[in-house]
Amino acid sequence: MAHFITFEGIEGSGKTTQIAMVAEFLRRQGHHVVTTREPGGCPIADAIREILLHPANDALVDRAELLLYAAARAQHVAEVIRPALQQGLIVLCDRYTDATLAYQGYGRGLDLDLIEELNALACADCRPHLTLVLDMPHEAGLQRALQRNSAENMTDEGRFEQESLAFHQRVREGYLALARNAPQRMRVIDATGSPGEVSERLMACLQNFLDPGMAP
Ligand code: TYD
Known about the structure:
Layout: E1 3-9, H1 15-28, E2 33-37, H2 43-53, H3 62-86, E3 90-94, H4 97-107, H5 112-123, E4 130-135, H6 138-151, H7 165-181, E5 186-190, H8 195-210
Parallel strand pairs: 1-3, 1-4, 2-3, 4-5
The structure holds thymidine-5'-diphosphate.
């Protein structure tokens, strides 16, 4: 059965590692899984990603940034997410509509209702069934993201890591507020500790969602 699961969290919360582990876990159980990410996920959206994340683009105004995220999402939904769900696959997506609410809404201060409307336009009926928010203190997350970027020489993707600690705190609090308002769909996972510990918490949540009858 098709499931659309999104992963959210501040910079450095470990989403990428966890998504890879979840995908492997589900494949071992015989599920057909597609992993993808935003911004990006297909060539046109990847081209928009380059504009959005390049540190040289510090002149990008907030509303242009918002519209570019929406444009990338509309393309990604049409090319990747909707077809995969129509084929009955499980789609695991690294960031989606909640990221726009957290970053452009809570982080930048753009109107949340306007963002909801743009999200609706971009994703049409492709709404996540489950959203896992990896939560940890924003200072630690940011430090981890900065270390990763320099270790992996990701000099062309650091525009958000340049933002202030206060920005990242607003994003974190934004995610927590979104999760409080959508308790059916969103689950907050403690992302502190080793990748193995975080993964155990995440798998328990996922198993409960996929197979509620088996919950302890
Ligand atoms: P990425 O390098 O993929 O970061 P991470 O590994 O932390 O997910 O960069 C994605 C960046 O884009 C991240 O800083 C969050 C930001 N973003 C938004 O501001 N709005 C959005 O709608 C999305 C999808 C991402």
